[in-house]
Amino acid sequence: MSDTTPFEPMSNGEVYQPSSAFIAKANVPDWESKTIQAEQDLQGFWSERALELEWYQPWNKVLDDSNKPFYKWFTGGKVNIVHNCLDRYVKTWRRNKLALIWEGEPGDQRSFSYHALNREVCKFASVIKAMGITKGDRVTIYLPRIPEIIIAMLACAKIGAIHSVVYGGFSVESLHGRILDSHSKIAITADGGWMNGKIVKLKDMMDEALRRSPSVEHVIVIKRTGQDVMMEPERDLWYHDLMSLPIASPKCETEVMDAEDPLYILYTSGTTGKPKAVLHTHGGYMVGIYATLKDVFDLKDEDRWWCTADPGWVTGHSYLVYGPLLNGATSFLYEGAPTFPYPNRWWLMIEKYALTILYTAPTAVRGLMRFGEAWPNRHDLSSLRLLGSVGEPINPEAWKWYHRVIGKGNCPIMDTWWQTETGMFIITPTPVMALKPGSATRPYLGVAAEIVDADGQVVPDGEEGFLVLSKPWPAMIRTIYGDPDRYVNQYWSTYPDKYMTGDSARRDKDGYFWIIGRVDDVIKVSGYRLGSAEIESALVSHPAVAEAAAIGLPHEVKGNSIHTYVILRTGFDPSDSLKDEIRNHIGHEIGPIAKPESITFVDNLPKTRSGKIMRRLLKARAQGLPDGDITTLED
Ligand code: WT7
After folding, report:
1. Cβ neighbourhood burial of 228 (10 Å; 0-12, 13-18, 19+)
2. What are phi and psi of 143, to 5 degrees?
3. Residue 235 CB contacts under 8 Å (≥ 6 apart), including other chains
4. Average pLDDT of span 531-536
5. CB 139 within 8 A of CB 187
6. How far apart are CA 471 and CA 499, in angstroms?
7. Which of 358, 347, 313 is nearest to 527 (CA)?
8. Where do runs of H (alpha helix) occur along 344-425?
9. Cα angle vertex 334, ends 398, 295, to 5°?
10. Which pLDDT score, from 0 to 100, does residue 233 have?
11. What are the C-alpha distances in Å from 211 to residues 105, 239, 472, 567?
12. Contact (Cβ atoms closer than 8 angstroms) between residue 157 and residue 81
């Protein structure tokens, strides 16, 4: 261990030790003792962390587990997450600190101090309030990566409305389904967003989705790309018009919320059926993401934090929008793609804005790695001090490239394992921990992670099993919006009182966790979460398709890619043009991210006697692996 090189590989090359210099300055240098403390007194630990934030009224109970698995945190407490993100900061010197630096794909730039961001949020909150939105109403947000997506989310939360952000990469049917399920009163979108030099026509897709969504009374449209769009009289309103009216008052009270009041819903793919709405709250969620970001990424006032995720996914909600603001940090947001116009775009941003922490996905690292070292080497990346990874396992090769070429050997990599449902980091290193490339290391403070077999028995170290969480944590999912039974069945019915993650993993002799992947029919494509069932239902909605199966197979850059098997209806003949048509159909139904890598026309599909498609068998055969147990296979 040396003081000059903050992060040095150990002799065996597979364990990377933190430097004493890093430890000396870390937010939490004594991780081991903190771990023991949190384990012995879970509620004491979380109550201490909650007290680092401001509450309108203190809670009576840290954890209420009287109605498992509907756990409640900080009951009786009154709070609003936006109070802790903005209100408390604009009363201090921090009003002058940059909250957000933004660059658009065409190169336009905007930045917001805490004061300026708060002002925009207050004005927009006043606008939607004047339009009749009140506490508990749902608002769908469908925007590109522009500052207004953050402003819109915060404005909703400020007045107690529940936001439902739909990722701008999803298209018509996905958007439609989410608007319908959430009964949103208003929708917020833009004329378009820039991506790879092209305009993603969000407003057009919104119009199509709204044809069958009666709940939406108004659409607020942000002018971003400037091309003509249809504005339906009475229904559609320009954001800039609304923001210049007297109703856009910069004075807007923050709604006093119960700790357990919903903050947002976010749709995510599951094992079966349609995507489900994961519900998070103002109190516990706020405490969880505030503490994890502060501890794990060692956030300091002088940092410039860049989480490359889209705000439309949970990573964006927790660690792009809320987490950094709760910590009073400066964030960077970039609109476009990493490779447009050249694959140096991200490295240029780091240099240009002197960003200090980069948090991204393995698929992005692998994708950029393909272009070679010359691109990053042309830029001064010396501002970086920490790196992060999320969304899927990072292979040691990509880890080492990221560490050496981007981090110049000086930046620890925080490989954070978590889920939409967990809300916050669950298994994660910290910069004071020894790292092993490819391992998400150890459970966060107070987290009880176990690897169990089918009977719920903990398996010996080194053996693969199901990853479960046996103690609650404050940022956990509270329910599936509108479907509490599904919440219980999906996560809590396999083992009593244990949260089922859907992942398999191993734990090594040092207590380090190695995530293997999903054990259900969820496919992670470039870190995006999609369901086999969802893709199959999109396939069979095409007139030529009678039956279909979708599976994920390993892919060098994307982690997994989607492969599909299709039985055609009589009267349709297999052809390449039909394949293209079906691929585009999926693009329309779900979004470009769900377009399959391959479509194979088949005469039949392997099914169990009860009629379920045996995706496992398709997967094994596609990879040339043994069939495994096929006793349930229909003849
Ligand atoms: C699934 C959850 C959590 C934010 C983004 C994904 C996989 C996530 C890691 C990691 C290995 C990971 C798991 C998990 N996953 N992070 N560091 N190492 N796998 O959220 O879309 O809800 O997906 O992503 O399979 O279950 P999500």
Report:
1. exposed
2. -135, 160
3. 216, 217, 218, 219
4. 94
5. yes
6. 8
7. 313
8. 345-353, 362-369, 374-377, 396-401
9. 60
10. 96
11. 31, 21, 41, 31
12. yes
Task: From the CA of 528, give the closest atom in ligand 1.
Answer: 21
d(CA 386, CA 144): 27
Assess contact for 74 and 259: CB atoms under 8 A.
yes
Tell me 502's DSSP state.
Answer: E
Q: Which of 265, 390, 520 to mutate to test the pocket of ligand 1 (most atoms within 8 A of CB)?
A: 390
Question: Whole-angstrom Cα distance, residue 179 to residue 274?
Answer: 13
> H or E element: which one contains 119?
helix 114-130
d(CA 367, CA 540): 32
Nearest by Cα to 289 from 469, 416, 146, 166: 416
Q: Whose CA is nearest to atom 17 of ligand 1?
A: 417
pLDDT band at 633; cut points 50, 70, 90: confident
pLDDT of residue 612: 87
Quote the DSSP letter at residue 569.
P
How far apart are alpha carbons 153 and 280 in whole angstroms? 13
Of residues 465, 607, 609, the one with CA closest to residue 617? 607
Q: Which amino acids bring their CB within 6 angstroms of ligand 1?
A: 268, 314-315, 389-393, 415-420, 440, 501-503, 515, 517-518, 524, 529
SS3 for 339?
Answer: coil
For residue 167, give the H/E element and its range: none
CA distance 133 to 146: 23
| 54-58, 270-274, 316-320, 385-389, range with the lowest pLDDT | 270-274
The pTM for the full model equals: 0.95
Contact assessment for residue 130 and residue 247, using Cβ atoms and an 8 Å cutoff: yes
**CA 160, CA 263: separation in Å to the nearest integer?**
7
The bridge status of strand 198-200 relative to strand 193-195 is antiparallel
Q: Across the beta sheet with 138-142, what order do the strands follow?
A: 236-238, 218-222, 186-190, 138-142, 162-165, 262-268, 276-281
